[in-house]
Design a protein that fits this description.
single chain, two-stranded antiparallel ribbon, 9 helices, hpI Integrase, Chain A, 271 residues, mainly alpha, 11% strand, 6 strands
Amino acid sequence: MLDRGVHRRLPTAAAEAASCGESGNEGTADEIIATAKNNEYWQLAMYCAAVAAGTGCRSWEIKNLHLEDIRLTAGTILIREEIAKNRQEREPCLMALAEWGLRELLYRARQLGASEPEHYLLPLNLRKSRHWSKKTKQKWDVTQPMTTWVKSWRKLMEKCKMRGFRFHDLRHTFRTQGAEAGVPLEVMMAQLGHMDRETSLEYVHIQQRAFERAKALIEQEQAEIVFAAKGGVRSNPARATTATAETRIALPELREHHDAKNLRRVPRSSP
């Protein structure tokens, strides 16, 4: 199961291309949040980005969420089969960042009049619709979902010096973070829904790269131990002292385990 710990990291401007899309390098979300909070027009995009970065969901999946699809107590949301790319219903887990974004969006939806389970989380702004703006004086329709936040997202990214970073790239970033964290492919597929063969292979490749980096770091830490084991002399006495102390700490545990095994082997005395 996915770890729902706090994910405060979002992509920075240094986005690098990947075969399955763009995935940004990790950086703090502080700049994005601080920038968006200064502009009411950008706040909606920011909250939706938090949901995408904390679930890996697509933009149209977020736009089509009903109030009843949000299950904060269970820590999941429901993606209905009619809006899923592979037409299969799923329940992605919510990372802490996504939960924060959803709570803000729920508050906004209620302020706009959404109260029934079937109402949309992101009501349609009729004033911005060429069709509806001429037919009604009503501003919000909670029975229809909003259609786009492309302009506000683009301007927010420009302000954050992340020009060219698409909203959909948050999905790639979530997938990359999962691969580097060692999340199994089948778990990630259950979270994200449809993943084609090329994307699946890329996911495995990212995991392998992450393992190679971890392997190099571990071997670097163990280099002197291996050298000494082969008959060499350690060049760092402090490390040797630390290792000896660690060995001494571990020895009583081994002796205790050994004694426990011996106790089980003591033959019963004859009556």
